[in-house]
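Human:
Care to share another protein and its fold?

Assistant:
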Amino acid sequence: MKMFSANLALLVVVVGCSVYGSANGTVVESCGATRSLVPIEENTVDISNCEVGPCKLKRRTTVSINQKFTPTEDIKNLDTTVFAKIVGLPLPFIGVDGTSACPFLFAEDGETKLGCPLKAGVPVTYKRSFDVLEIYPKIPSLTVHWELQTKSGKTITCFEVPAKIV
C-alpha cells in the first residue's frame, strides 16, 4: 500500500509539472523591450509541439501559434511580420509575412472572433498557423522572428524563438 501511495504521489507531481509547463506556453525571447508595446513577460505564446526551443518544424506539418496579449493603446489595424533568420539573413515566411493579423484575432476565450480595431486594456488571442512545406531544406539552426505591428510600422508585440527544420 505504501508503494502504491508513493507511485500515486509521483504521478500527481509529474502530471502537475506537465500541466504547469504547458499552461505557461513556449519559452520565447522578446525582440527588445524598447520595440514592443506589450512586453513578452505580459503575454503568452504557445507554439504547437514546442515548449522550449529549438522548436522542431517538421516538414509536411502545420505549426500553430497562439499568442495572448493585452494592447496598451487602441489599435486600428495589425500586420504580421514573420521571417526566419538563417546565418543572419532574414528570409520571410511566404504567405504569412506582410499579411493582416486582423482575421486571426479573437477574444480572450480564443473562440469569439474579434478582428480589428483593438481596444486598450482588452485581452486578445492571436491564432495563426503555417505549413512547413516538404520542399523546405532541412536546416539545423535558425531563429523565427514573429512580430505584430501597426500599418505605420510600430511594433505592438514581438518574439523570437530558436528553431530547426527537420
Remarks:
- Residues 1-23 have pLDDT under 50 and may be disordered.
- The chain has one domain: 2-165.
